[in-house]
Amino acid sequence: MAHAPGTSPCWSVYLVRRSDGALYAGIATDPERRLVAHRAGTGAKALRGRGPLTLVWSVGVGDRGLAQRVEAQLKRLPKDQKEQLVASARFARSFLGAATGPVQPR
Predict the structure, then answer these.
(1) Up-side HSE of residue 82: CA atoms within 13 Å toward CB?
(2) Which residues, listed in sequence order, are joined to residue 60 by a DSSP beta bridge?
(3) Measured CA angle at 31 (ends 80, 22), to 5 deg
(4) CB within 8 A of 85, min separation 6: which ones?
(5) What is the DSSP letter of 10?
(6) What is the pLDDT of residues 20-70, one digit of tens each?
């Protein structure tokens, strides 16, 4: 994702589904580009050899620090609640609302 000179990039939190159904949480300025890196084996070690990989949820949250805090919260969720994030925009808004303000899941 390109951003204007002198401005900070918008960081996103995302979930990738592995072939075994597990969900991996991460952050990136461009989740689609990061998925390409994961598929190429140059992303997170936890995803290497676990394909096919599918980006199932992402949302822009703002600066990197906020994205890291939201990612940490997301990683602590049980799998059933992560699945709710994927399935329900309403649940996603309630999860993200306190930390980030109004956001629109993509």
Answers:
(1) 24
(2) 12
(3) 30
(4) 15, 57, 74, 77, 91, 92, 95
(5) P
(6) 999 999 999 999 999 999 999 998 888 999 989 999 999 999 999 999 999
Helix 79-87, helix 89-100: angle, nearest 10: 110
Tokens 């394909």 locate to 51
Q: What is the CA radius of gyration of the chain?
A: 13
104's tokens: 């629109």
CA dist., res. 71 & res. 21, Å (int) = 19
* Helical H segments across the chain, by residue range: 31-40, 64-76, 79-87, 89-100
Q: CATH class for domain 11-65+72-99?
A: alpha beta
Domain ranges across the chain: 11-65+72-99
Query: Measured between alpha carbons, how far is 3 from 86 in angstroms, rounded to an integer?
Result: 27
With CA atoms as reference, report the closest residue to 23 among 60, 53, 44, 43. 53
